[in-house]
């Protein structure tokens, strides 16, 4: 991961390292101890779901071995002795369960943007976030901290198309977001449902019938085309199966370049249709900007 693209907060923490855990481990000289009640979770923490069994397992380890890795915190403005967690909320929760009275910490003076970046990158490096948490974290960086998709991609070590595809998930209805967040729907299901006219109804059918991602994509196509065939029946060999290898390859290339879902419906001598699905107005603006910049 390139150091140049990292934000100020991560640079302050990492120095020459690109891994949050390694940087914290090397900061032994900066470790202090704080009463556990002085430490509170940051409401902007990208990770919202913590598995109870994993917390219990870590708490058991802490009881016997102690808390080996410090928690990264920052002062909470003018709140006196209160500190917000930047990285390590899972360890803090387990330490509470293990009934520790104080915990090792590293205190850093960080603003909201710096803390948000470090928290996101720590979770992405650990693969701790579910797809919805990751998508919403990228969206917050883009909207609240005015970070572009390319800048976010460089900071977290992902491709720009990955960031764009994840951010599209924030366009799902609230109910479907919850189903993704809780693990009932996969990332593949969510991307297919996103292009449906009635995503909540499609999501309900997917869960009710236990449909695979491919079956979900077929169901969305059928609903879009006004077909009445149910998902239990074998999806007919339509769009993707009838497209030749060149058309499918072109779809992939354009989708990768734009970071959006692309479909080409080629009808031979009659021409065809190129469809680009966007998730929000920012993505529509990006499409328009690129089209206008094309050489005439």
From TrEMBL:
BP term (GO), one? chromosome segregation
Q: Does the keyword Transferase apply?
A: no
Task of the protein: Involved in chromosome partition. Localize to both poles of the predivisional cell following completion of DNA replication. Binds to the DNA origin of replication.
Which NCBIfam families does the record match to this protein?
Answer: parB_part
Name assigned to this protein: Chromosome partitioning protein ParB
Give start and end of each ParB-like N-terminal domain.
Answer: 32-124
Query: What's a Pfam family this protein contains?
Result: HTH_ParB
What the entry lists under PANTHER family is as follows:
CHROMOSOME-PARTITIONING PROTEIN PARB-RELATED
Q: Which GO terms describe its cellular component?
A: chromosome
The UniProt entry, under InterPro entries, shows:
Chromosome_partition/occlusion, HTH_ParB/Spo0J, ParB/RepB/Spo0J, ParB/Sulfiredoxin_sf, ParB_dimer_C, ParB_N
Region of interest (Disordered), ranges: 221-248
Look up and give the organism this protein is from: Aquisalinus luteolus
Q: Where is the composition biased (Basic and acidic residues)?
A: 221-235
Residue stretches in coiled coil:
none
Q: What superkingdom heads the lineage?
A: Bacteria
What's this protein's family per the entry? Belongs to the ParB family.
In the UniProt record, the signal sequence range is: none
Tell me the keywords, alphabetical order: Chromosome partition, DNA-binding
